[in-house]
Amino acid sequence: MRWKGRRQSSNVDDRRRLRLGKKAKGGGIGAIVVALAAIYFGVDPSVVLNLAQGLQGTSESTSSKPLSAQEQQMGEFVSVVLADTEDAWHALFKGMNKRYQEPRLVLFTGSVKSACGFARAAMGPFYCPSDQKVYIDLSFYRDLKVRHKAPGDFAQAYVVAHEVGHHVQTLLGISSKVRQAKAKLSKADGNKLSVKQELQADCFAGIWAHHTERAKRFIEEGDIEEALTAASAIGDDRLQKQSRGYVTPESFTHGSSKQRVRWFRLGLKQGSIAKCNTFKARSL
């Protein structure tokens, strides 16, 4: 992926040298287990995060250890990817006679306070609609490479683009409609709606790749395969199989590997928001 020397976003809040201390009141290990159970790439993590609200307080301290050259480069890389999403979505929203409001991206280490609550790195990257920020502990990329066998910078860029996809859903009013609808549904039917929302975010990530490639020719040989490998690796079916040895489709909240790959491919090929309407698709 060609990214060096290109514009970096001014919307990155680098908190990687900050450390949060906390005093637990109840919850403790139980809250961590629940957080671990929240599969990566959540839409609205507030339900899980609020389980940790028993935390009486937090204190911040700044690490005296400077960021390594590799850590600095990863921060620059993520900033370039975020800038690419800004360029792509500004143009797309302008085409709809709308104004795109840029999200902020928070880089953290270990744990972080967000408007959705207190989060630990074990939850993976997430988007908080309450403050319209994307949160990423970059150690997740190591997990993506080692645990999920999905290495590569384009796979890492896909992660950012997917979370920004949830921000686009918030701006378009899709997220609020999903929340309202889920409040009236059973858990199983609510999960089905969550899957459609997640797959649409995958499709939106494909749209980012489509328009950025047309404008900047940034894709190199093997990049698309990296993104497809990442999308496949974090499908509900594969994650459930890895964690407990069997699959329960009715509990899916993000979609199967095949579905995630399909919708990313569709966004990449079509580059159209209209083509990403998972909610009206006859089949996912």
Q: Characterize the largest beta sheet: strand count, sense, and whether it forms a barrel.
A: 4 strands, mixed
Distance between the termini: 29 Å
Total of domains: 1
Q: Write down how many β-strands occur, each being a DSSP E stretch of 2 or more residues.
A: 8
Question: Helix and strand string, N-terminal first?
Answer: EEHHEHEEEEEHHHHHHH
Alpha-beta content class: alpha/beta
Give the fraction of residues assigned to helices.
40-55%
Percentage beta strand = 5-15%
Shape: globular
Calculate Rg over CA atoms: 18 Å
Low-confidence blocks of residues: 24-43, 51-56
What order do the strands of the largest sheet run in, or round the barrel if closed? 1-4-8-7
Quote the average pLDDT: 81
Structure in words:
The chain is of the alpha/beta class and 284 residues long. The protein has one domain. 49% of the residues lie in helices and 12% in strands. The protein has ten helices and eight strands. It has helices spanning 29-37, 46-49, 69-95, 139-146, 153-171, 174-182, 187-216, 223-233, 236-244, 257-270, and strands at 12-14, 18-23, 57-62, 104-107, 111-114, 117-120, 126-128, 133-136. Strands 1-4-8-7 form a four-stranded mixed sheet, covered by helices on one side. A two-stranded antiparallel sheet has the order 2-3. Helix 7 runs parallel beside helix 10. The model is unreliable at 24-43 and 51-56 (pLDDT under 50).
List keywords for this structure.
single chain; 284 residues; four-stranded mixed β-sheet; globular
Can you give me a brief rundown of this structure?
This protein is of the alpha/beta class and 284 residues long.
